[in-house]
């Protein structure tokens, strides 16, 4: 086995078009991410049709740039990896079609990737000591998923959200507080100026034995706090800058309390000694601090993906080399799976 083999990984599952060239030893030679956030901002969320059209425009320039930055030619690649699940169907199809065309024309293997598993694998990329076996936690705009991870090819879903994902709740609360999209960073910034104890927002399912999340009621509680309960004559305090900051801080504290507790619960249940956290919400400073504190208190190893590997990217497609070694290749009849199909399998 030589260490000079490289593969191209492609990501287009949601609103980022990304490509990366990754060497067999895991070194990322290039990682290009073209965000479409500004296209979706006025809608306050990702519009699927707008996203897939934007992927179509960007996919080839993004691949070209990744190849250039890695100083590689297409003929030097040994495989093409592509995120095929979960995500927006039209968006996933753009990446898959590009990947199939490259794989077929270059005569090299095609490797289908699960985007959520790649988010967890991002933690493996920053450490010399393998993260497996571990609890993998992906907190993003679309998912709040806990996994039992035995290896880079064995992930079992333990629990997820029954309604909104954590990042989705941040994005919706940002709209309520008149903050820009994506809402997570903006809510976190405003929260740093507020009092997290100002409002006692509900901590959904905090004491529930199930490894499940629910954030849609919390979002409604934030709306009622900001604008009053419909039909109620109770006066609502003016939404001053300080009150907005207090609402943001109290909301963030409620979400983080639940996320940390469910991580601790799954570690206890599984008996794993390592927790790996990825996905956009893992950029949140309060969550990072609280998990660091929890790992010290409870004596487990914590690995959090670095900031640039938390939000969507193709470099986390480095997991493809593990699948390559396990002969997990796709054919040209490979299709996308927009929904999460791994639950309980
Ligand atoms: O993983 P990601 O880039 O895309 C998905 O796969 O969904 O995650 C994006 C999500 C958005 O909902 C965004 O608001 C949230 O991550 N996010 C944050 C922070 N940075 C990004 N949420 C809370 N605090 C942050 N600092
Ligand atoms: Zn993601």
Task: Please describe the structure with a list of short key phrases separated by commas or semicolons.
globular; five-stranded mixed β-sheet; 345 residues; 41% helix; binds zinc ion; 10 strands; disordered C terminus; Nucleotidyltransferase, domain 5; 11 helices; binds 5'-O-[(R)-(carboxyoxy)(hydroxy)phosphoryl]adenosine
Quick structural summary:
The chain is α/β, with parallel strands linked by helices. It has helices at residues 37-40, 48-69, 89-106, 115-124, 166-176, 183-191, 216-227, 241-270, 285-298, 307-310, 320-325; strands at residues 6-11, 16-23, 28-35, 77-85, 110-114, 134-139, 144-151, 154-159, 274-278, 301-304.
What is the assigned CATH homologous superfamily of the largest domain? ATPase, nucleotide binding domain
Rg, please? 21 Å
- Which regions are unreliable across 5 or more consecutive residues at pLDDT < 50? 341-345
The tally of beta strands, per DSSP, is 10
Strand content: 15-25%
Mean pLDDT: 94
The largest sheet, given as strand count, sense and whether it forms a barrel, is: 5 strands, mixed
The CATH topology of the largest domain is Nucleotidyltransferase, domain 5
What series of H and E elements makes up the topology? EEEHHEHEHEEEHHHHEHEHH
The CATH class of the largest domain is identified as Alpha Beta
Please report the distance between the alpha carbons of the first and last residues: 32 Å
Task: Tell me the structural class.
Answer: alpha/beta
